[in-house]
Structures are given as C-alpha cells and as structure tokens.
Amino acid sequence: MNDTVTAVRAAESAKAVTAPVVDVVVPVYNEEVDLGPCVRRLHAFLTLSFPFTARITIADNASTDSTLEVARQLAAQLDGVRVVHLDRKGRGRALREVWQASDAQVVAYMDVDLSTDLNALLPLVAPLVSGHSDVAIGTRLASSSRVVRGPKREIISRCYNLILRTSLQAKFSDAQCGFKAMRSQVAKLVLPLVEDGEWFFDTELLVLAERIGLRIHEVPVDWIDDPDSRVDIVDTARKDLQGIWRVGRALTSGRLPINELRAAIGREPLVEGVPLGMVGQLVRFGIVGVTSTLAYLLLYVVLQGITGAQAANFLALLITAIGNTAANRAFTFGVRGSNQAVSHHFQGLVIFGVGLALTSGSLFALHHWAPDAAVHLELLVLVVANLVATLLRFVGLRWVFRNAGRQPATEAVR
Description:
By secondary structure, the protein is α/β, with parallel strands linked by helices. It is 58% helix and 11% strand. A seven-stranded mixed beta sheet has the order 3-2-1-4-7-5-8, sandwiched between helices.
C-alpha cells in the first residue's frame, strides 16, 4: 500500500515538473503546406527567445489532406510538440477541447500563418503568469499597432468591433485577432459556458470574461495580413451576427450565471468595508434615482391639480416605484429573467411603502404648519423627503437582490 502511494506521489511530482508554463495551441485545417514552416519557426522562437517553458499543441480540425501526417512528423522530430486530432471542424471547438484538458498554467493560441509578430508573445502571457491579468489579447486597432492589410478587411474589422461596443457594451478593442491567451484556472470555469465552436468563439469568450469581471490585458501587435486566408468573410459575418444576437438574449434573460462566476473568481474589495461592486451599484442607482425623481416630480405636478396633494403623491410614487424597481433590478444589480421577479417587485413595493410614509408624513407636517404652502414649497419638502427615502431604498434593494441571479453554472449550461 505504501509503495503504491509513493508511486502515485512520484508520478504527480513528475507531472508537476514536466508541465509547461505556457501551452501554445495552433489550430489547423488543411494546412499541409504552411504547418511545417510555422511550427519550426515557432519552436525555434520558444526554445531560443522565450523565458518560460512552453509546449506547442497542433490541433488538427478534421483535415482532409495530409495535415495530420505532417503534424505527427513534427511531433516526432521536435521536443515539446504534440498533436491533438478532432473529428469535427471548428477553431473554437478545438481551442475549447485543448485548453480545458491542458496542464499548463497559461493557455494561448495563434493562427498558423503567424501573421502576428512572435515578439508580442511574451508581453501577451507575462501578465497571466504573474497573476496580474486573467485574459490577454493581441489588438490590431491600438494606435501603436503596426498593421498591413487591405482596406476591405480593415473596414470589416472596425465595423464588427463597433457593433460589439454598441450591442453588447464590449470594451475590448479587437475581438478577432488570432492571438490570445488565458489563465488555465479561469479558462476551465468560463469555457463550459461558451457555446460557439467556430469563429465567434473568441468574441463570446471575451464578452463573458468582461461581464464576469476578469481583467483583460491588451497587447498592441505588428500584424501582416495573410493573402491566402481561407476564411469565408460573408458566412463568418452572418454567423457572428447570429452569435451577437444569441449572447445578447442570454445576457438579457439571465440564462448565463454571470453573478455566480463573478463571485467565484472576482477580486476582493479594494477598500475594506466596501462590498465588491458597491461603488458601481451606487453610480447606476444614482442614474436610475435621478430619472425616477424627475418622472415623479413631473407626475406630481400633473396630478396635483386633479387629485390633490396626497393622492397625487401616492399615484406618482407608486408608478415611479414600479419602474424604479424594474430598472434597478436589471441595470443596477444585473438581475435578468423572470426568476423571482414577482417577489422582487413585492419587496420593492414594501420599500415603496416606507418612501410613501416619509413623503406623506412630510406633506402632512407641512400642511399642518403652513396650510397655504405653495406648490414649489411642497416640491422642496418632497425632494428632501425623497433623498432620505432614496438612501433607504438603496440599502433595501441591496438586501432584496443580495443573492439574486446566482444559480449553479452546471444548471445554466444544461
């Protein structure tokens, strides 16, 4: 028994020693001509100029030519080169399978044409090895990047990234550059949620990483377009737009367990005693609050001459409270979908009752001491009362949505 345990521990130790720091994946499909020169050049760079231990993984995506045979020859001739064969096409599918199974600290990938200058590889992975960042991407759209490509691809790339910024509020600059890396520990948590197995894989991964709160490091690159690229631009654009629609719906409906993953891998608060995310929530709550207050005052002025002060206050506050709860639920606290929506609105109405008591009590006191008070004085008193009610509403809504949206990741992926 002791001999068995010793043997197991020895095997684990050997694995820990031999596991590379970085696993560079080169996904290929029918690249029998370019694969050899690419891998030999990359292998020479990693051997002579790269400070971390590295492995090259050739991910063959169901090639129909002699790509797989060439890949196996390279693996037999070069140390630190291995081959993974997949029976189905798809760059994203290949990356997901290899990255999830990798024993390296950092997983990366680059296109077989080596359009990106290899000198950018160290700046790409160094922040991940140090733990400073979680994801790293090469960007061709930074002012310091040097890019050689035709106007057609330049326009398409910039338009695509503009669509991402407007539709999914993406903040990263270049979704499609074939030069990315990720910490393996984080990749194993996020990759099961990425549905696309083709070209949209990169975009979906980055959108999820950003929403979860991962730190994305961008590296300006020198990049030369491959004139022999086999990407079908029209078909890829169509699938990308479908992917944007799908991911947008998933985020809006709350189907993705963003809150749970954020809690699992999010960083500790920067200021002790200030809960993680509270500053951003305060800003968003303030935006909703200002909008609600303006709507409340407008409704009060319109209704006051018809129903009287107390009834106008009640109706204006009720209408804006319902809208306020819905807006804070989605915008401030990021809760999507219909799960617990009725409960949340009921609790929001309870908080509304507190606000109603404060504002109605303030009006009652004003009319008791100044029965002939003008409308502008009523508005002033209501604004002050609403400020107090707003503070109580924020505290109350943080409690209402304290666990909302957190569901097991495995359940959401089913």
